[in-house]
Amino acid sequence: xIDEYDKPITEFIEDIEKAKEMRAVIxxxxxxxxxxxxxxxxxxxxxxSKFSKTSVFSALNNINDITLDExxxxxxxxxxxxxxxxxxxxxxxxxxxxxxxxIELKKELKSWYNGYSWDGKNxxxxxxxxxxxxxxNVIANxxxxxxxxxxxxxxxxxxxxxxxxxxxxxxxxxxxxxYEVDDMNVYALLFQxxxxxxxxxxxxxxxxxxxxxxxPNMEVKESFLNYLLKDFVNNNQKSKAVTIxxxxxxxxxGNLDDFIKIMKTIFDDIPYDIFIENKEAYYHSILYMxxxxxxxxxxxxxxxxxxxxxxxxxTDKIIYIFEFKLGTAKTALNKIESKGYYNKxxxxxxxxxxxxxxxxxxxxxxxxxxxxxxx
Length: 375
Known about the structure:
Elements: H1 7-10, H2 16-35, H3 80-86, H4 88-98, H5 102-113, H6 127-136, H7 150-158, E1 170-172, H8 186-192, E2 197-202, E3 210-214, H9 218-232, H10 237-252, H11 256-268, H12 279-298, E4 302-304, E5 311-314, E6 318-326, H13 329-339, E7 351-360, E8 365-374
Parallel strand pairs: 6-7
Antiparallel strand pairs: 1-3, 2-3, 4-5, 5-6, 7-8
Helix pairs in contact: 4-5, 9-12, 10-11, 10-12
């Protein structure tokens, strides 16, 4: 059993030459193993990245990659039947503590901890999170207790990935098979490390099938976006989590003045040199992370679309329809009204607010916002 076979390479992912040196060392190791193959009856390797056979495993030409093999799609994780069978008592106790029905609690547990899949059909719970959950009897984010994705954050920065494109990205089969130290597919890496999972396989019986990836659940999404936001705005994670909580509270109370004030503070924290390249992409990425983290905390219906309206957040009593523009708040608000994005919510019996937010490139911050209530 060889665990984390790729660690020597990923440890130096920012130093390509050093990573290549480590790759050469690993390659020599497997050449030695190959020479002793008559004494090896079974070998099992795990890692978060899959370097091509020509770069690392050229000596081992009989490796069977089972990552996407449907026969093994349920060997890791806990399925729903196992959860209800083995943790039934824990579910009853937790439901009683939280003053919820078991049906309500099961739905919440599914949202927080379920969702991992290797075939787009079977979805599994994170065993570690469930064990800690029923030990502490508190629904919380336990994902980052297992480690932080430092090298993944570095890769996202290195390849200038648009954070919005991570959720719902589509990969071909070859994307899972083309890892090289100087040309790594970060989307596939996020899948290998558990930050993205397979939600659907398009044309599963075709040699040209493709895979739709998304965050497995709220726990992973909250962890990853919180960590990314902390890195993007150069601030510590604890204070940033408190800031997101304040944003959430302001929306729940209908206090848009406070919401915009806190948002301005966040953008003030961003170092100047971050905006040198691709200003608009950074605005959009940071907004996407903030809005999604708010959605996790409110635990409400939320829609985000790059094709239509920027964001809809629905609390118990209020629906906010946001449009963010590099320009004037009036332009942003006019778009919401002209497209009639609020019409589908008119029968909700909730307050509906249209919020146009204008950004200034010169100020590197929010310049103005306009609010209109739909009666």
